[in-house]
Amino acid sequence: MSTLKEQLHQQCVNYVQQRMDAAQQAIAEAQQAANNDTKSSAGDKYETGREMAQQETNRNLTQLNEANKLMVALNRIGTVAQSITAEAGSIIKTNQGNFYLSISAGNIRVNNEAYVAISTASPVGLKLKGARIGDQFDFNGKRYLITEVL
Question: What's the predicted TM-score (pTM) here?
């Protein structure tokens, strides 16, 4: 049986992998569209189509690069250690919800419990980093009380 941290971490890995797969597929499709575009007597049309395919490829390469950075960040996060203060890889439970301090991957459900995967560089992540049980902070007009750090 895997731990809660391992399950949250795996869901973040799955999220990043889906982003990488989508970007790679879009790159392949744009490349195929560019290869299938045959030169017609209207040369400008051909060049415009190829340029649009190249721009699409470049956008998707940027997305793939960002996803790779997220995967590298995830690979640096441990799933075993537990500390008293919140850090990358920590699960923080508050009176306003549960957080997994890792990457910005949004809402995750594990064992019918909701968590928000957030980056340590996000506004809430910055408030949580270094926090301990009993600490409080205000965000968007709400007071958060940290009840657990795993």
Answer: 0.88
